[in-house]
Amino acid sequence: MDDGAPRASITEGNYDWRGPFIGSYSIARGGAVYDVNDFFSRPRTMCGILVRSPPEAAVNVAALVTLIVYFGADFAIDPLITFLKAVHHVFHAGLHALPEWSTATGAPQVVYRKPRVVCGIVMGLTRYAVILTYAYRVHPAWLLAFGAFFGAATALRTLGEIIKTLLAMLLLAHRMAAEPELRARACLLGLAFVCQTIGSGGFYLTCLLRGRVYKLWRRTSDRKLLAWHLISDVGNALFMLSAQVLTTAGLADAPVAAVTRSVGRLR
Fold first, then answer.
1. How far apart are CA 123 and CA 128, in angstroms?
2. What is the DSSP string of 214-238?
3. What is the pLDDT of residue 239?
4. Dist. CA 87–CA 85, nearest whole Å
5. pLDDT higher than threshold 60 for residue 81
6. This prediction's pTM
7. CB 95 within 8 A of CB 112
8. Which helix (H) or strand (E) holds 88?
9. pLDDT (average), residues 32-53
10. Helical (H) or strand (E) element with 185
11. C-alpha distances in angstroms, 168 versus 4, 31, 103, 143, 258?
12. How far does CA 117 lie from the centroid of its chain?
């Protein structure tokens, strides 16, 4: 850790074509914490507790409430996958609520390491479980293709994560658009694709063009109006809410009234 005085910004060289490592978005230098390239929203103290990224946490809480209230019929249509989506939003919100740093004692200290690791693992696994299950329902060959590609793309860091997410969205949107009762949800999935492209893609390009430019994490000025990760989290929330691929048996077994409610609310 650098012992120099805190600065408004720090530049530490360039990324290669793969972009940042997943999860490596902040550093501690000179007794202060810095975020890279406007990735996160500003941490805030709420009710005496430091919240890492309040807008991002709020997006996931809102997505959970929307899933339960507005898309509640999905629990009857596809209970396991809908439950996994709910779990994803709970732990995703937790990841953005818990700060990875604390400056309460002066020098930055790493905090909540284990809870954040748990949140990150559960959040990621549930998301991949949803995507791979849907891929299998489109066709078993897609499960094999996605499984192999997802594993290989891990080495591509941020770029790999973007490609995986956008490919999954395109596949599911194409399948859903072919089903009349899911076309409205396919349109919502298209909006998710746009948000993910802007948020994740914009951050990736910024990293390539600007390199590693870190700024004080709790600064009140010199910020983007909307952090890159906030935009991509909106896209992820829309994706998890709208995506739905049911097997033929699943459609036959699903309560007709529940299907009608779920689709009708989007019209």
1. 9
2. EEETT-SSS--SS-HHHHHHHHHHH
3. 97
4. 5
5. yes
6. 0.88
7. no
8. helix 79-97
9. 95
10. helix 183-196
11. 45, 41, 39, 11, 26
12. 15
> CB of 246 within 8 A of CB of 202?
no
Tokens standing for 150?
């997802």
What tokens appear for 179 in the block? 């089903």
- Contacts of residue 106, defined as CB under 8 A and 6 or more positions apart, other chains included, come to 31
Q: List Cα–Cα distances, 85 to 156, 201, 238, in angstroms.
A: 26, 24, 11
Burial 205-220 (b: 16+ CB within 10 A, else e): ebbbeeebbbbbbeee
Q: Poorest-confidence range of 40-54, 178-192, 252-266?
A: 252-266
Give the model confidence (pLDDT) of 164-184 as tens digits: 999 999 999 999 999 999 999
- Token digits for 6? 């805190």
Output the DSSP codes for 115-152. HHHHHHHHHHHHHHHHHHHHHHHH-HHHHHHHHHHHHH
Contacts of 177 (CB under 8 A, 6+ apart): 183, 186
Query: Contact, 182 vs 244, CB < 8 A?
Result: yes
Q: Are 13 and 211 in contact (CB under 8 A)?
A: yes
Up-side HSE of residue 253: CA atoms within 13 Å toward CB? 10
